[in-house]
Amino acid sequence: MASFFSGFGQSAEISIQLNDVEGRKTVEYKSTDQDIKDSKSPLYFDGETVSGQVHIKLKKQGSKLDHRGIRIEFIGQIELSYERSTPYEFTSLVRDLATPGDLTANKTFDFEFVNVEKPFESYFGANVLLRYFLKVTIVKSLSDIVKEQEILVHTLAHYPELNNSIRMEVGIEDCLHIEFEYNKSKYHLKDVIVGKIYFILVRIKIKHMEIQIIKRETTGTGPNTYNENETIAKYEIMDGAPVRGESIPIRLFLSGYELSPTLREINKKFSVRYFLNLVLIDEEDRRYFKQQEITLFRKAEKRGTTHSHAMNSAITRHADRETNPSASKAS
Fold this sequence. Notes:
Elements: E1 12-18, E2 26-29, E3 39-44, E4 50-58, E5 65-67, E6 70-80, E7 88-98, E8 101-103, E9 107-113, E10 123-124, E11 128-138, E12 145-153, E13 166-172, E14 176-182, E15 186-188, E16 192-202, E17 206-219, E18 226-239, E19 247-253, E20 263-266, E21 270-282, E22 287-297, H1 308-323
Parallel strand pairs: 3-12, 15-22
Antiparallel strand pairs: 1-4, 2-3, 4-9, 5-8, 6-7, 6-11, 10-11, 11-12, 13-14, 14-16, 16-19, 17-18, 17-21, 20-21, 21-22
């Protein structure tokens, strides 16, 4: 799994080859950052070792590459759209591959970052990027030669012990009284939202009703807080006028949508939250809304699958951070 960096005037090409990629799941990701192309990446979990080889190939055989050292870094960072020039690194590990000197032939270096802490899930959003990557640098006197490789990280969670149903009412005095119920408040990413809507009083002419999944990405704090809302899904519940006493079932499958887990106050930089938005439209095109937040989480795969031990360990570490936020600080 080697890819090469090539740039004008560079005297060497760098490739990074990861160990154990054959048995590791790869995940597609889509980035809104023009500098990060949509691609596939091997999937890692919190606490797993990241190791492999760095290959340096001289462009001209028999030539010599003078350098001031070669290093590889494992970096976890958050980039906000309004602070692109100053990304925040929450994880930064360095391994020196070579001391200053020169290369007169192609060279391969082994590297290993043991039991790397990866406290957060990779996230490519509208105004924020949370990414992990390996960065190899050949330090030169004029212009360094650099190669980066993305690594995708998922965080896992157990089923919540408490998962109460949601029951709410929507009303306009003497005109409309609707009660709606969802079977639970926390869903895994492949789950099914099941619910019902009851029409207790209907004195306005409703022509359409739908339920939406709204994703809200929040960046900044205080007066500098910015919310980016995206409608992930629309599900038509009813087309036509309901009558008093009518009950309409809801069944919405989450597996068909690109969703991330709910992310709350990630390093006090950003959050990603999800809402179920009930929308009613009357015959005069007036719109009525009722919003309810839900929690999404990534469920671990069944035991016996590849890397199940690493996944179980990752769940434990993630649970520890939920109860002890200070545990997420990386050195």
